[in-house]
Amino acid sequence: MRQTLYGDSDLVKQWMAPRFGGPAALPFCSTIAQVEDKHKLLGAVWLENYNGASVTAHIVGDGRRWLTRRFLEDVFHYVFAVLGCRKVIGIVRETNGHARAFDEKLGFRLEASIADADPEGALLIYSLRREDCKFLKGD
User: Fold this and answer.
1) CB atoms within 10 A of CB 18
2) Nearest by Cα to 52 from 100, 86, 15
3) What number does CATH give the domain 2-132?
4) In this prediction, what percent of the chain has a pLDDT beyond 90?
């Protein structure tokens, strides 16, 4: 059985870090993880830079079948209803076509490109506004 876990979890941080190429000691806001049978991590979202109006999100998972609509509903409910954000922000390398397509499929829109901000070129700033989120259930 799958369930969603919320909070500051060192286990989730350690699991996520090598999957998105960052250190395990990143600045923390919160983590949201999807687990199976209470032990196996399937995917997670790292939230940071929360300022009351927005939060930056990093999402990673193992394989292709881990992500469910229910998990996305849980994540966006937390971001928009619990944290009260107006926007969630995604920062993507311009060379990461998979992440760009993923963000766009979720409804994120490209807002800016910062040239030479990444060793591989530009960083792209995507955002999703609360009113454009298709995963909120009447929140």
Assistant:
1) 11
2) 86
3) 3.40.630.30
4) 50
